[in-house]
Write a structure and sequence with these properties.
This protein has 10 helices and 11 strands. The protein is α/β, with parallel strands linked by helices. It is globular, with a radius of gyration of 18 Å. The relative contact order is 0.15.
């Protein structure tokens, strides 16, 4: 297991972590510059932030500063209530692959979606099996396109509390079942299709260690870190800073690295009531310190 205690060489910042500074929106170019000033060598930006700044400008900044992308957030949201919706999802996911390729990301993270309309509070139906079928079909179609672009796809299983609205793939086992069905020969190096292990979503799973071993090095495409607070006041936007909650992050990182994963440890924190209210400089300094002691 790598020693993170001496430096933050393997820290990546998911840019959602400081998308706000002092409660106000912080543009992606400013986030990039703040990371560069602190010697953070990798980021994982969100598409809305990239679009706001302009893909060409973000690409220029990434190349100018020699940054790497541990991932690109995000593709997915495959299910839809009609053919037009399915086509729109397909087209948007292809654009996401193109953007990830332009930015030379390690992978495109997939948050797969769930019941159509549920995220807006108006689910079109209750057939989660249908949603999972549409997810499978959507990934299969996107995989062919992503292979041509040499962009690995990382399925991110989300905690079961998101099964209705954000992701109907909720465990590593489910995600790897899809990987094994669609990419049984584990094509590519790393694999064309794999998983993103976000400790916030999978820490509770009694099968986690076994499923990480099942994934193996070639399917472990990303590792995300934050913490689960007790009590949690908001199921989406109350993630904790590493060390402030109940997740044994080093243990899970040890399982991942035992399989040969040697990529970045990506810090991804959504925190409306706490960290997004603080100056981003303070947040970044805390992220660096906790990455050394709690990851």
């Amino acid at each position: 297991m790598r020693d993170f205690s001496q430096d933050h060489r393997w820290l990546s910042l998911n840019t959602a972590t400081i998308r706000k500074s002092g409660g106000k929106d912080l543009p992606l170019p400013d986030i990039i510059e703040a990371c560069v000033r602190r010697g953070i060598r990798a980021i994982s930006p969100w598409r809305d932030q990239v679009h706001a700044a302009g893909l060409a400008e973000v690409s220029r900044l990434v190349r100018t500063h020699g940054l790497e992308l541990s991932g690109y957030c995000r593709g997915g949201m495959f299910p839809a209530a009609d053919a037009a919706g399915l086509k729109a999802a397909r087209d948007d996911n292809r654009r996401a692959v193109d953007e990830a390729a332009e930015l030379n990301a390690k992978c495109l993270v997939l948050v797969v979606g769930a019941l159509p309309g549920a995220l807006q509070g108006k689910p079109a139906h209750k057939d989660i099996a249908l949603a999972r079928s549409q997810v499978r079909d959507g990934i299969a179609e996107l995989l062919d396109y992503a292979r041509q672009a040499r962009m690995p796809l990382a399925i991110e299983p989300l905690h079961p509390m998101y099964a209705a609205d954000r992701a109907c793939i909720n465990t590593m086992e489910q995600a790897l079942d899809v990987c094994d069905e669609l990419d049984p020969r584990r094509t590519g190096e790393p694999a064309s299709l794999g998983v993103a292990v976000d400790v916030y979503h999978v820490w509770w799973d009694p099968k986690l260690q076994a499923q990480i071993a099942r994934a193996g090095r070639d399917r472990l495409l990303a590792f995300h870190a934050c913490d689960w607070l007790t009590p949690t006041t908001d199921l989406l936007n109350d993630r904790g800073m590493m060390g402030d909650g109940v997740i044994d992050i080093p243990r899970i990182r040890g399982w991942v690295e035992a399989q040969g994963f040697d990529g970045y440890s990506e810090v991804e924190i959504f925190s409306t009531g706490n960290w997004w209210q603080r100056p981003h400089e303070e947040v970044l300094d805390t992220v660096i310190a906790r990455h050394k002691t709690a990851v």
